[in-house]
Amino acid sequence: MTLGEAVRLEIESDGAATITLDQPDRRNALSQEIGAGIVEALDEIEESDARCVVIEGSGGSFSAGGDIEAMVEGIQSEMPIDERVRILERTTNETIARLVEFPLPTIALVDGPAVGAGANLALACDIQLATEEAAFGFVFRQVGLSVDAGTSYLLPRIVGENVAKELVLTGDIVGADRAAELGLVNHVYADEEFDEQVEEFVEKIVSGPPVAMRQMKRLVGDGLEKSIEQALVDEATAQGIVFGTDDHEEGVTAFFEDRAPEFEGR
Q1: Which family, according to the similarity comment (predicted)?
Q2: In a domain, 144, yes or no
Q3: How would you class 97 by CB atoms within 10 Å of its CB: exposed for 0-12, middle for 13-18, buried for 19 or more?
Q4: What are the tens digits of pLDDT across the range 200-216?
């Protein structure tokens, strides 16, 4: 399925949905077209039987950040600054927020540059898998801008405040190995092994119990904002939801029968 001219969506029968950013001539910069396509794709996926979302870029780039052509147009136009801010809120911000809050597990496949808003698009996913060619940079300063696209929310949560400040104040590009050391990616795979390793990883996610997986994602995502008392109460409430599922019964039965469980999302 093609969403506009910038994004492709494929929902596999095994439960994985893949969103492909498809403007390689612009290095998949987070344009209005790509942002709208991602949101539309997520809407389609939420109505499907998918269990996991994979986001990738075409042409050797994940996403090269903000739309420079749109920036040039903004500078040259007479559009009021407050209107330019509202456009940002309606496009990039909506896309990042929708992805962060999406109920299914999300995985970014980074096989090239993920820069600026593109880096945040990757970090907005739950898990990041990278090739050795991956590179991350929060390069807003290079174009005379402050951070946006969720940088101040996402980056400190992953790398800590001091490192986050270093990355945004210097605008340095970090390669795959350094990104892994900082926690920007979960795994770095050799280029020739990437597809196989990704397939195995995604299969591990989609084979999990869907109801419980949604609860896990929500609880961990909210955990930093809670007291220990509130976290324990919310975890108990979530267990109350999954105790009644067929998947819980299947998991316990499979454990005692010494076999792999087959979860159906009920």
Answers
A1: Belongs to the enoyl-CoA hydratase/isomerase family.
A2: yes
A3: middle
A4: 999 999 999 999 999 99
pTM above 0.85, yes or no: yes
d(CA 169, CA 189): 29
Query: How far is Cα 192 from Cα 196, in angstroms, rounded to an integer?
Result: 9
Enclosing domain of residue 156: 2-206
CATH number at residue 252: 1.10.12
- Distance CA(237)–CA(256), nearest Å, equals 26
Task: Using 50 as the pLDDT threshold, list the residues of the chain that sit under it.
Answer: 71-72, 74-75
For the segment 154-199, what is each residue's pLDDT rounded down to a tens digit? 999 999 999 999 999 999 999 999 999 999 999 999 999 999 999 9
Q: How many domains does the chain have?
A: 2
For residue 262, tell me if it sits in a domain.
no
Using alpha carbons, select from 127, 153, 129 the residue that is nearest to residue 213: 127
Give the mean pLDDT of the chain: 89
Spatial CB neighbours of 28, under 8 Å, sequence gap ≥ 6: 21, 22, 34, 57, 58, 59, 61, 62, 63, 64, 118
* AA identity, residue 89: E
For 155-190, give one letter per residue: b (16+ CB within 10 A) or e. Answer: beeebeeeebeebbeebebbebeebbebebbeebbe
Q: Are residues 153 and 242 in the same domain?
A: no
